[in-house]
Task: inverse folding
């Protein structure tokens, strides 16, 4: 089987559109490093007592986000958490058990200062931990994460499941949108009373689920016919670099987590 | 050197009746074998059995022998079968792995699964892209291709494993005429340049008329007609077997029925 | 050790590996649609998990659940407000249980004759007793699961009320299922759902309380607030809300999966590791596909 190779193949290194190196000091860190930093931030937000923990974490996250141009994404995610924040503030403001320092009395309701501060602290911790994780997600493309985990030993099946799921979600959402439009044209109610909305679920979920399952057989064949079940390790075309600064940062994160936890525990006992 | 099916009968798991059989068939390198038949005549099952994927991947019970280049298919594992027989289906979207960002990485999926060194992977990828004629698509996102382009990329990604045989189950059935022509041309090119043996299941007999060497007609899971493509495709029994003859054959019949002559030169000119 | 490795490998055939991302996508998309778009007070985000658990096994089920939670938090486009990453463990347990139910043949269609009816009644009595016990303990005092007598009638009424509410849904779903299809298997499936729901509520209450103060930004927060107003602790209020939402949600989900599995073609289901246990044994032995 002799087919002459095109000129591009003479250059053995990979094309740029495959290498896809991220730019920026934070983004170009190894995915495992970014996850370690996020883990440190989550631990700090909850284990360091009082306002110091969440405050530090939020400050660090904001600075890192600004330097890696992800502030906008972070704000969007933060805004999506708004209903939850409102809920936390309202419930704690009015219903913190054992609070005896009312701000005012509005009929039977008595918002309390302790409730207010506790609600604010809970909100701060929540925002700290979710923004830390969100930052790691926003600065790490999924294929980079998977390629790195693959290098560290994650098998091809794990890589496939996560990679395929992430790509499949937007596709499935589109399909749901199409079905919903079609159903609306036929009179399905998405805004009305709860019973009518509930009835709309089955004609919506049914086609989505069955459509997705119908593909399973062919996708299985497709994987097998691309030697998916061959033994041994999969070749990685591209792997995010793991530099000495990455290793140093991860070691630092580990030590910090241990230190924070140790101080907190001994502080309580001492 | 061939895929040989000898007295093959096959039954799916959880099914009580045979989906295929008895069938004797031969796919030779460098030749295109077309397969036609009505719906449910066993065409897809034939593809799965001839490639060894039934029963290796789908289970079920096989009687008779399936030999690929002299080796019993039942002794081969799916990844070994994949390197001997490339298998392709109708729906381009479900054949793309759904995990890659560019066509190049998609076509590299197979060789990477084999654990080959990066240099060899890239060599095979460029070779496959070139053989199918889609080098220009290499940087594109596989999820954003047209139906015809998707099928070509699927073909390239299977070809990257360098199988000696290709088995295609109605690859153009979901494509418009432009996509169909694209895939048919690519198949003809691949057959010519790589010397692969091709088993092509097609509803569109025009495609077979153009590129098939021999044609087999299936009915009820068994072979009803077999022979050189031109002869089988103009056989009057095709209609009762649920197969529409190619447009050229129909035209020839109409012309003759109207009392005119039909010459070989006319046939050539129509193409 | 080899037996264990074999047991693990058997559950992860290529077909299962293909099903898992599909199931994860179903979880995320249906959950999002039902919760945020249709704004119904149920989660419906474990249909995929329970499906994988029952056709493939406990491990694939657990992993599907865990990954759904992790990926949802970060899924492009809809991840943001869902805030459910920390519940990965609960989701994992749900998948694990579904695998156990699948291997026990809970989702298998069964005729309504003698032995099956007796078994169904036994299952209902058992699950009812478990529910009664759990609700009694959970609602009986402000401290978690402390030994309580039922002499304090006011809190006993509270537990009775919620127990009855959940059992009403249970009976309703079973009746509906038997009407749709005369299949005693539905009783087992929905009982399994109730059990799973109770376990899920108990497991997720501490996580919920710790990370989110028991709140989620959705309508169920009103229930939590009401309990808090009644004097319950954070954990207690969260647990009570969970014991109302989770069992109902899991019963609905298991009901859906039961009918879903029954509607899929026999040929399709039979090719999965647990498939034979769901569609019933094959008349003759056939070659089964290799694992992995």
Result:
């Amino acid at each position: 089987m002799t087919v002459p190779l095109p000129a591009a193949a003479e250059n053995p290194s990979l094309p740029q559109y495959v290498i896809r190196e991220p730019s920026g000091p934070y983004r170009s860190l190894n995915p495992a490093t970014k996850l370690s930093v996020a883990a440190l931030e989550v631990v700090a937000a909850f284990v360091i007592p009082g306002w110091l923990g969440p405050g530090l974490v939020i400050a660090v996250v904001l600075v890192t986000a600004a330097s890696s141009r992800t502030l906008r994404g972070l704000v969007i995610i933060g805004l999506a958490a708004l209903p939850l924040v409102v809920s936390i503030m309202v419930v704690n403001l009015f219903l913190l058990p054992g609070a005896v320092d009312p701000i005012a009395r509005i009929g039977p309701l008595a918002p309390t200062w302790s409730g207010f501060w506790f609600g604010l602290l809970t909100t701060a911790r929540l925002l700290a931990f979710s923004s830390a994780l969100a930052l790691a997600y926003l600065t790490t493309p999924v294929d980079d994460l998977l390629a790195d985990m693959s290098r560290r030993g994650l098998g091809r099946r794990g890589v496939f499941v996560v990679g395929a799921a992430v790509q499949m979600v937007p596709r499935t959402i589109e399909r749901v949108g199409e079905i919903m439009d079609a159903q609306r044209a036929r009179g399905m109610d998405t805004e009305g009373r709860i019973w009518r909305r509930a009835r709309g679920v089955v004609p919506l979920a049914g086609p989505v689920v069955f459509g997705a399952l119908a593909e399973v057989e062919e996708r299985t064949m497709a994987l097998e016919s691309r030697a998916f079940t061959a033994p041994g390790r999969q070749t990685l075309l591209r792997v995010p670099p793991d530099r000495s600064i990455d290793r140093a940062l991860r070691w630092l994160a580990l030590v910090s987590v241990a230190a924070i936890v140790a101080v907190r525990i001994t502080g309580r006992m001492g | 050197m061939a895929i040989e099916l000898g007295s093959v009968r096959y039954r799916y798991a959880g099914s009580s009746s045979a989906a295929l059989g008895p069938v004797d068939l031969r796919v030779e390198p460098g030749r295109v074998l077309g397969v036609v038949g009505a719906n449910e005549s066993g065409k897809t099952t034939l593809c799965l059995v001839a490639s060894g994927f039934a029963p290796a991947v789908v289970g079920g019970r096989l009687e008779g022998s399936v030999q690929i280049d002299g080796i019993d298919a039942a002794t081969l594992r799916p990844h070994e079968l994949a390197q001997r027989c490339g298998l392709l289906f109708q729906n381009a979207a479900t054949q793309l792995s759904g995990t890659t960002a560019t066509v190049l990485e998609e076509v590299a999926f197979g060789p990477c699964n084999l654990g080959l060194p990066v240099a060899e992977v890239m060599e095979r990828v460029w070779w496959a892209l070139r053989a199918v004629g889609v080098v220009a698509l290499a940087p594109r996102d596989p999820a954003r291709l047209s139906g015809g382009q998707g099928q070509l990329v699927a073909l390239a990604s299977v070809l990257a494993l360098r199988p000696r045989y290709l088995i295609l189950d109605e690859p153009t059935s979901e494509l418009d005429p432009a996509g169909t022509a694209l895939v048919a041309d690519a198949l003809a090119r691949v057959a010519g340049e790589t010397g692969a043996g091709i088993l092509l299941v097609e509803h569109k007999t025009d495609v077979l008329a153009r590129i098939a060497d021999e044609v087999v007609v299936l009915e009820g899971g068994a072979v009803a007609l077999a022979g050189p493509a031109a002869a089988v495709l103009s056989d009057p029994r095709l209609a009762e077997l649920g197969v529409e003859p190619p447009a050229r054959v129909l035209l020839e019949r109409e012309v003759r029925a109207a009392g005119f002559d039909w010459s070989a030169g006319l046939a050539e000119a129509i193409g | 050790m080899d037996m264990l490795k074999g047991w693990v490998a058997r559950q992860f055939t290529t077909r299962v590996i293909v099903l898992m991302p599909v199931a994860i996508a179903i979880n995320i998309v249906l959950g999002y649609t039902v919760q945020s778009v249709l704004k119904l007070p149920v989660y419906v985000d474990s249909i995929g998990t329970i499906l994988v658990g029952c056709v493939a096994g406990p491990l694939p089920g657990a992993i599907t659940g865990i990954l759904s939670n992790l990926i949802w938090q970060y899924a492009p486009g809809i991840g943001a407000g869902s805030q459910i990453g920390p519940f990965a463990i609960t989701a994992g347990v749900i998948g694990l249980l579904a695998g156990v139910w699948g291997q026990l043949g809970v989702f298998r269609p069964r005729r309504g004759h003698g032995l099956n009816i007796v078994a169904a009644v036994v299952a209902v009595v058992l699950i009812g007793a478990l529910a009664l016990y759990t609700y009694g303990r959970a609602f009986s005092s402000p401290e978690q699961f402390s030994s309580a007598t039922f002499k304090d009638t006011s809190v006993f009424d509270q537990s009775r009320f919620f127990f009855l509410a959940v059992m009403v849904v249970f009976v309703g779903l079973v009746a509906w299922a038997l009407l749709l299809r005369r299949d005693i298997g539905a009783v087992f499936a929905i009982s399994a759902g109730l059990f799973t729901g109770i376990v899920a509520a108990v497991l997720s209450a501490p996580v919920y309380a710790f990370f989110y103060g028991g709140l989620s930004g959705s309508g169920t927060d009103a229930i939590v607030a009401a309990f808090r107003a009644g004097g319950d602790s954070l954990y207690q209020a969260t647990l009570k809300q969970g014991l109302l939402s989770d069992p109902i949600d899991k019963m609905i989900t298991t009901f859906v999966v039961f009918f879903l599995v029954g509607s899929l073609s026999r040929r399709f289901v039979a090719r999965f590791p647990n498939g034979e246990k769901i569609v019933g044994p094959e008349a003759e032995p056939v070659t089964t596909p290799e694992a992995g």
Notes: Chain B has one domain: 3-270. The first strand of chain B starts at residue 3 and ends at 11. The mean pLDDT of chain B is 89.
